[in-house]
Design goal:
Number of domains: 3
Strand content: 5-15%
Distance between the termini: 42 Å
Radius of gyration: 22 Å
Helix content: 40-55%
């Protein structure tokens, strides 16, 4: 252990902040407090279950989506901040709060619906644009994490137009942006500006506002981190992923996968998630001590857990023994239908598994198409077709659409 710590200290590539986070992770890795069963550990060792580097003793939620509207109205007693009176105070107040919103990366993964937050403070447009541009520049230079995400829309705002204009001019990585798009609410010129901006700097992305609102029982929602839909004023306790590509090795055939291997894997992984959530809620003290809770910016009962999925394509191809392209996932109707059956079964199992602290999602975990990690090899994100195997775009879109309801 001491050699590992020293190697981090002497590392010539990591910045100071990166060393600090890595050292903290190494310290947490020395703990064994979750009571992991041999069955769960077996699947962790095989790579079937992966906790995506969350650590051995959760002391903050993975993703936190504060209600920034509440903050803008009331300020913060803990931070000794009064409600903003102009655009400079508004952007400064937000930047201060961002520094105190934790996550798995230590940086905030959600910055709020920026256009609606800043719109009330736009009086002089030239001055407001300067403030917004500097605001975005500081975010990029201080929140050095690609999971940082801000939202726009669905209504047209001057602030939204300024944010997109400044984003195109700055051409910075952070924050990620998503436009909540609703054809009945979002004007065409605002949507076109978003498209033009995206063609220049690869953001904003587009979220189907009607679909997301339906998923969140008509309430507003946050698109955070790597395009995760989460409840505002809450977030995600944890994100653990199930590697279907590796789970396929535990099954003899399709029926064995659907009826035996998959239920067993869901039981083990959901139980592991329970242990992580239980420690965070009952023992870490996070929800008892954080000023974000005390000041009403987040609420424990608005958090859920994310059940990640990766490697569906490889799982299908392995189970059916597909070697030729025309027989593989993304090309074969049979392979695609098996993929749908697997995801349908997975959703059924996950939704039927009841857990204690996920009231906001009817006391079950929610499925998440996980994008992958840097050590993955020949494992495709979520339900995607492997890179290089994609069919022509129209067919690709139709194939992908089959998995969107889940």
């Amino acid at each position: 252990m001491s050699d590992q710590i020293l190697s981090i200290v002497k590392n010539r590539v990591l910045t100071y902040e990166q060393k600090l986070r890595t050292l903290a992770g190494a310290a947490e890795a020395t703990l064994d407090v979750l009571g992991i069963t041999p069955e769960i550990q077996e699947y962790r060792d095989k790579g079937i279950i992966c906790d995506l580097f969350e650590g051995n003793a959760p002391y903050r939620a993975r993703y936190i989506t504060p209600d920034y509207e509440v903050f803008m109205k009331q300020g913060s007693k803990f931070l000794e901040i009064k409600p903003a009176k102009d655009i400079w105070e508004a952007t400064t107040n937000l930047l201060i709060l961002y520094n105190h919103v934790p996550s798995i990366t230590t940086y905030p993964v959600y910055l709020g619906n920026l256009d609606t937050l800043l719109e009330p403070y736009i009086k002089d447009e030239e001055e407001a644009y300067k403030a917004i541009k500097l605001f975005l520049l500081q975010i990029d230079r201080t929140i050095t994490d690609s999971f940082c995400h801000a939202n726009l829309g669905p209504h047209k705002t001057k602030a939204g137009e300024m944010i997109m204009r400044a984003t195109a001019e700055l051409n910075t990585m952070t924050p990620n942006l998503t436009l909540k798009y609703d054809e009945e609410v979002t004007p065409d010129d605002f949507a076109v500006l978003a498209i033009e901006t995206s063609l220049k700097v690869a953001k904003p992305s587009f979220a189907n506002n009607k679909m997301f609102r339906k998923d969140f029982y008509g309430e507003d929602y946050a698109i955070a981190s790597c395009y995760n839909g989460l409840s505002i004023g809450g977030g995600a306790y944890t994100l653990v992923r199930l590697n279907l590509a590796k789970l396929a090795n535990e099954a003899k055939d399709e029926e064995d996968l659907l009826n035996n291997a998959l239920p067993e894997a869901v039981e083990r992984m959901a139980s592991y998630m329970d242990k992580r959530v239980k420690f965070l809620v009952e023992e870490s003290g996070f929800f008892d001590t954080s000023f974000l809770v005390k000041e009403g910016l987040i609420h424990r009962d608005r958090f859920s857990g994310m059940f990640g999925v990766v490697g569906l394509a490889e799982c299908v191809n392995k189970i059916i023994g597909a070697e030729n392209k025309e027989d593989k996932f993304g090309w074969s109707e049979y392979a695609d239908e098996l993929g749908v059956r697997i995801i349908e079964r997975l959703q059924e199992l996950v939704h039927n598994y009841k857990t204690e602290y996920c009231e906001i999602t009817d006391n079950h975990y929610v499925l998440h198409a996980q994008v992958g990690i840097d050590t993955d090899a020949e494992i495709s994100p979520g339900c995607r077709i492997p890179i290089g195997d994609e069919p022509a775009l129209p067919k690709h879109i139709k194939q992908t659409a089959k998995f969107h309801p889940y």
